[in-house]
Fold this sequence. Notes:
By secondary structure, this protein is of the alpha/beta class. It has helices at about 1-5, 30-40, 50-55, 75-85, 105-110, 125-145, 175-185, 195-200, 210-225; strands spanning about 20-25, 45-50, 65-70, 95-100, 115-120, 150, 155-160, 165, 170, 230-235, 240.
Amino acid sequence: MDSEKRIIFTGKIQMMDTKRILVVDDEQDLCDILVFNLNAAGYTAHAVHSAEAALELDMSDYDLLLVDVMMEGMSGFDLVRRLKMDAQTARVPIIFLTAKDGEEDTLYGFSIGADDYVTKPFSVREVLARVKAVLNRMSPVVADEAARVLVHESLSMDVMNKTVTVDGESISLTKTEFELLRLFLSHRGEVFTRQQVIERVWPPHVIVSDRTVDVNIARMRKKIGRYSSCIVTRQGFGYMFKV
Length: 243
């Protein structure tokens, strides 16, 4: 097939933290090529050849799924819909790999929770780049959620229960404001550009302007009272939580 002709081994690239990746595709040769190259790139990759086989695994153990759309039996779309309905797998990032490249198919893929959509034929280099981008986008959230409570003096955030208190008093934040505060609290002393903030807080398919970032940060600052001065602007660079 054409996609196989364009897929060639690109060599071992720079090693990274090991992430577990599952390829779900009914073309065994394609799976073998992807698994080989993903492993060579420093990931731990496995493959299954149907959605039904994927459902027999504990997919919450994987950091990313590469899912074909058109498979015998259950489709990739149906598989992902089921995963997104399960609390244990809802946050696992998804990249669709498919020959269905129409606008409606692409938009539908994003609407059910895909993080990216790669159309066949594709190159291994493109897939590796998309995988790296999605994992980089997700990693701050994963690392942050490992800590149940984030505290700075009397500013406290319960990550799991989605609550924030200042001096023991509960404050009400929108989801976006909560995610902004969580980003800054979990990376105190680190400067984020507006683009980096967008990539870490907003869904990947949502168009967000710099002005939207500024407005949401201003609202969040106002709500955290005397700790508003901790969220500082580094002119020409971005925002940070000053310690």
